[in-house]
């Protein structure tokens, strides 16, 4: 895991809210593994929340991690781990239909227990939609 790297943030910024970005496949494999890895990440990296990338497909993991008492931030839009499936490293939600799909992802991760749906590489003209959820 990225634990040694995450720990450096706490030392550099002791009074800062630290978002832990767990490595690829540390929470996507199954729900039990995601909770165990998130717990380890919280304890050893001393993060304040965990970022789960993937929208609706990671909602069961978000729910389980949140039910375990940990803060989770959902991440939608461009996810580097899935860039091949998404057509490369480019903005997501470029059409109205795709933007509505991202909006549904944002609503789903919040409903699953994420306290905030962050977004990556979303066109500015659609970003206003996300303020409505």
Topology:
Blueprint: H1 3-12, E1 19-21, H2 31-45, E2 49-53, H3 59-67, E3 72-77, H4 96-112, E4 116-120, H5 124-127
Parallel strand pairs: 1-2, 2-3, 3-4
Helix pairs in contact: 2-3, 3-4
Offer a concise description of the structure.
By secondary structure, this protein is an alpha/beta fold. It has helices spanning 3-12, 31-45, 59-67, 96-112, 124-127; strands spanning 19-21, 49-53, 72-77, 116-120.
Characterization of this structure:
By secondary structure, this protein is of the alpha/beta class. The protein has helices spanning 3-12, 31-45, 59-67, 96-112, 124-127; strands spanning 19-21, 49-53, 72-77, 116-120. A four-stranded parallel β-sheet has the order 1-2-3-4, covered by helices on one side. α4 links the parallel β3 (72-77) and β4. It is globular. It starts with a helix and ends in a 6-residue tail after the last helix.
